[in-house]
């Protein structure tokens, strides 16, 4: 039985705080691959990390909680979470170039 796009969810997050220079992107990438979501993560240059992920409801819920917690050296002051329509265009999980 195949999975169609209606079974998938997409989350777009912006995380503010001490999230740069503490391994935040690597932490998100590693855990995203373990969870099995598709997407990307990048620094925005203003003490903010942006990430997008697609997966099942369970995977996305787990991903959001992991991102909000961050790695041990990080401090998440604010996490903005928006749910969007899936695109089906994501492959793997990557760290994008900082903006």
- CATH topology grouping: Alpha-Beta Plaits
Summed up, the helix count is: 2
CATH architecture: 2-Layer Sandwich
Q: What is the rounded distance between the termini?
A: 40 Å
Beta-strand residue percentage = 35-45%
Number of strands: 5
**How are helices and strands ordered from N to C?**
EHEEHEE
User: What can be said about the biggest beta sheet?
Assistant: 5 strands, mixed
| Alpha-carbon Rg, integer | 13 Å
Low-confidence blocks of residues: none
Which sequence of strands runs across the widest sheet? Answer: 4-1-3-2-5
Mean pLDDT over the full residue set: 94
CATH class: Alpha Beta
The general outline is: globular
Explain how this protein is built.
This protein has 99 residues and is of the alpha+beta class. It has one domain: Alpha-Beta Plaits, CATH 3.30.70. The chain has two helices and five strands. It has helices at residues 24-35, 57-69; strands spanning 9-18, 38-43, 48-55, 75-84, 93-95. The chain has a five-stranded mixed beta sheet with strand order 4-1-3-2-5, covered by helices on one side. Helix 1 packs antiparallel against helix 2. It is globular and about 35 Å long. The model has no long low-confidence stretch (mean pLDDT 94).
Could you outline the blueprint of secondary structure elements for this entry?
Layout: E1 9-18, H1 24-35, E2 38-43, E3 48-55, H2 57-69, E4 75-84, E5 93-95
Parallel strand pairs: 2-5
Antiparallel strand pairs: 1-3, 1-4, 2-3
Concise account of the structure shown:
This protein is of the alpha+beta class and 99 residues long. It contains two helices and five strands.
């Amino acid at each position: 039985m195949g999975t169609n796009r209606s079974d998938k969810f997409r989350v777009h997050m912006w995380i503010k705080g001490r999230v740069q220079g503490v391994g935040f992107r690597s932490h998100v990438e590693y855990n995203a691959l373990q969870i099995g979501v598709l997407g990307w993560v990048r620094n925005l240059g203003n003490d903010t990390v942006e990430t997008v992920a697609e997966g099942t409801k369970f995977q996305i819920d787990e991903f959001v909680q992991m991102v909000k917690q961050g790695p041990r050296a990080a401090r998440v002051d604010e996490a903005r979470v928006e749910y969007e329509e899936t695109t089906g265009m994501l492959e793997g999980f990557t760290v994008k170039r900082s903006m």
